[in-house]
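Board work, copied verbatim: Biotin biosynthesis protein BioC
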Amino acid sequence: MRSRGLTGKARYQRMLAAYETMRVDGRIPATWEVVSAHAWGPPIGQPRRVPGGEVATFSLDSLRGSRRK
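↓ predict structure ↓
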């Protein structure tokens, strides 16, 4: 069965052991990569675009409530 966490206990222990081999003067060099993403979707009932195209789909019912006065 696949672990549901980011990593299992054994893998974490192997990572700690690998870092210990790099210890110099009581310090362990390490770098981190931070990846961030942000996205918004259209409000409920609004058209959604088709990936890779300029086609939008919507129902006729959604048009009935959006008439200009």
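The chain has two helices and two strands.
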